[in-house]
Amino acid sequence: MSTEFAYCSASELIALYRAKRVSPVQVTRACLARIEALNPRLNAYCLVDAAGALRAAQESEARWSIGSPKGSLDGVPVSIKDLVLTSGWPTLRGSRTVDASQPWIDDAPATARLREHGAIILGKTATPEFGWKAVTDGPLTGITRNPWNPSKTPGGSSGGAAAAIAAGMGALALGTDGGGSIRIPAGFTGIFGLKPSFGRVPAWPLSQFGTVSHLGPMTRTVEDAALMLNVISEPDARDWFALPYVKRDYRDGLNDGVAGLRMAFTFAIADAKVDAEVAEIVRRAVAVFRELGAEVEETGPDFGDVHRIFRTHWWSGATRVVRSIPPAGRELMDQDLLRIAGKGEAIELCDYLSAVESRGALGTARKRFHARYPVLLTPTLPVPAFDAGRLAPPEYGDVGGDWTAWAPFSYPFNLTQQPAASVPCGFTRDGLPVGLQIVGPMHDDALVLRVARAFERARPWQSDYARLVAPPA
């Protein structure tokens, strides 16, 4: 198994290509060798196109040989979550109900931008059925596992993407986040994940779960996330909700630090019950920002009944998903998804509109809060990664399909559509990663990246991946 390039960042690879010290073909072969060795155990990829990736790498190698790269990511290996359209490959969305034989002729906007910039798309990463839950297992692809301990879940729904990045099976991954689906697996697998402001990354077609769903980068470094955001945030007319495009380089100002920046820190969201060991690790991480000159106050905004608001949106989305499937196909589906879709059926129109109104009030309140505290810090998750194949940690019992019970820190910011990121901030005594969440005001993705980079510089985590050169059997 080749590990020579497994943990090179995208930025490092571009520098190596420019200096002609390595070729995209070498790097792609190394990534494919690692996938061949590790994917049977981790189940991160649900589709790998080795021949197509090598053809693309050869084309990239030819461009670099004459000093004419196609774009910002020419020759960088990347994966696409299997909720996102990729021309020529089926997008099965983790479901046995999707017909793989239909024509697959469209790239989603982010996929198209990655191709235009020369990225080498290795394949597609596993997702639970239609991305409905915060762990990654399902009737189509089975159980995806955590590289730090394969008996544990990597979280979800971008769990395949996170496992691939953590295990060195590619430099970049495209994920989606409808209630924490980038940040939750980033927290559980010790990588960096950014949920940008809603509309920052054009999306088409829109998620069946609606305007809570974002696309974003999953990487091993903050700089790589900024570089990837430069690419995938480029405009696409198919997204009616997309923000007006402003050409910028998100790496500019990345190292400006946090001195004098006001930050709030809280454990108190949606009745969160934070594991004592996680709480201690997160408190030590928050102290880093004080050392860096930030003004950090332990306080938090009032989120009210945010669980009810999100649940109404999410369950309604689940109902839309299931209604799109012919009745005969529903017996093939994840039974817990059917359970919450049934709960969504019981939501009346007035209740849904009330939740929409409450969501607006929540967003207004967060804007006012961030006028006082530009940054909010929380744990990414209240617990470490738990056993793979479960919907919830055992201490939460039967949650009836409601995975939000154990993930209270992520989904509120899907409702408010703010940028939020998870950075690795330590390990439990059992060697499982813990994440710190950084939340910024709507549209200020650059601030979230700058704060994350300040933490990364003070407490670099990249050396930790050395333990994952060969994940435990």
Beta strand %: 5-15%
Rounded to the nearest angstrom, the radius of gyration is 21 Å
| CATH H-level superfamily | Amidase signature (AS) domain
Oligomer: single chain
Unreliable segments of 5+ consecutive residues: none
The order of strands across the largest sheet is: 1-3-2-6-8-7-12-13-11-9-10
By CATH reckoning, the class would read Alpha Beta
Main beta-sheet strand count, sense and barrel state: 11 strands, mixed
Tally of helical segments: 13
- The fold-level CATH name is Amidase signature (AS) enzymes
The helix-and-strand class reads alpha/beta
Number of strands: 13
Q: Number of folding domains?
A: 1
The CATH architecture category equals Alpha-Beta Complex
Name the helicity range: 25-40%
Tell the overall outline: globular
The H/E string reads HHEHEHEEEHEHEEHEHEHHHEHEEH
Distance from N terminus to C terminus (CA atoms, Å) equals 15 Å
- Mean pLDDT across all amino acids: 96
Summarize the structure.
The protein is of the alpha/beta class and about 475 residues long. The chain has one domain (about 10-310, about 335-470): Amidase signature (AS) domain (Amidase signature (AS) enzymes, Alpha-Beta Complex).
Question: What does this protein structure show overall?
Answer:
- The structure is a single chain.
- The chain is an alpha/beta fold and 473 residues long.
- It has a single domain (10-308, 335-468), classed as Alpha-Beta Complex (Amidase signature (AS) enzymes), CATH 3.90.1300.10.
- 35% of the residues lie in helices and 13% in strands.
- It has helices at 10-18, 24-42, 50-65, 109-116, 159-166, 183-189, 222-232, 276-291, 306-323, 335-345, 349-372, 412-415, 445-458, and strands spanning 45-48, 77-81, 120-125, 137-138, 142-143, 172-177, 192-195, 214-219, 262-265, 295-298, 375-379, 420-427, 433-439.
- The strands form two sheets. Strands 1-3-2-6-8-7-12-13-11-9-10 form an eleven-stranded mixed β-sheet, with helices on both faces. The chain has a two-stranded antiparallel sheet with strand order 4-5.
- Helix 2 (24-42) runs antiparallel to helix 3.
- The longest helix has 24 residues, at 349-372.
- The model has no long low-confidence stretch (mean pLDDT 96).
